[in-house]
Each structure stands twice: as structure tokens, then as C-alpha cells.
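INFO  loader      accepted 1 record
INFO  loader      residues=209
INFO  predictor   begin
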Amino acid sequence: MKQYELKIIQNDPTDWSDIARADVDSYVWGGAERAYKTYGQLAYAKTGDSKTGLYIRLFCEEKDPVSKETQLDGMVCMDSCMEFFFGMRDKGSSDIHYLNIESNSLGVTFMSFGAGRHGRVFLSELGIERFPVKVNIGSDGWEVLVFVPEGDLKKVFGLSDINENTVMMGNFYKCDENANAPFGSWAPIVAPAPDFHRPEYFGEIVITK
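INFO  predictor   done
INFO  writer      dumping C-alpha cells
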């Protein structure tokens, strides 16, 4: 099983150079030779204020991403899209519910919650505001920055605290269905056809100080 070390830091991350990368390098459905280098990064800030929470960075060395979807919770997966799916639970729990956060290069996002592909609900149905998202497009590629407040994580996953004893699983993805681009993931998925909603293949995300 793939494993990623998520460090608890004291301030919100402004420099990601020292934070571990999770390379999206599994292309079980082929197309690796056509794929852009993509990776995800995570940090958990314990600032003691409204900046406490999970920070997500997704980066792709795609210099001219093509995106057309402008409707929130629309089909951003049809565009040049990066995604992060993850779940949290207390030790001893077998809950497999997870959040999926998907963004195209316009910063248009799809965010939902559930235990699998079907029966998912949007954040508004959980009484939670959309997580702040910022997209930067540069000469070397494009990045997506997402902040998930700790209060929302506790509410969604039913947690009293989030620390190094919290069990966390997840996966990073890159796709572009409209362009017939390869489907890439960090943790390999065993399935006959592209399917990112496979929590049984999530990698382990270890929270450490």
C-alpha cells in the first residue's frame, strides 16, 4: 500500500519545497507516455485560529490546460482536471466515507461526500461552505491550492480531534476525459476501466508531528 507522510505544522504553508510529494505515476489503463508529470502535497496546520486545517496542493506540468466547465459541481472531470479524494476516521472505526475535491484549470470545482460513486451529497447538503480554492497557471505548469478548515473536517467525518492518531486514507488523480487523456493515480487501482471512486485502493496518509 502506498503511504504518504502528512506533517502537522504550526503555520499555514507558504513554501511547499520541503513538503513531501505524492507522484501521480500509476497508469493502469495505459497512456503513461502521454501523461504530464503530476503530484499532490499535503500539510496540516495547527495555528490555533481560523487557519487551522488541511492544506492541499496539486501540481501538473501541463503548460496549456484546456478547461470549459464553468458551473460549480459540473463535469470538471471532462476538462484538464486534478483531484484529491480522502477520508478520515478514528482508530477502530471502519467508516469508508470520503470527500472528493476536483478542480479544472479555471478553479471550477466539484466537491461531494459519500461512501462510493453513488449516493453522494454536495457540501451544501451537509451545511458546509465550499472550501477555498486558488489556481495558478505559470510557465512550468498549473497548480490548485485548497484549504479545508478543521471544523469542517470534524463535522463531516464525526471527529472530536485530528492528530497523529487519526486514520486517514486517500488518493491523488489526474484526468481529462474530453481529450481522451490518460487516467493517472498516486495509489494504483485494480479495475477493468477507469474508476477513481474506489476507496478500497486508497493509499495510507500518516499524520505525524
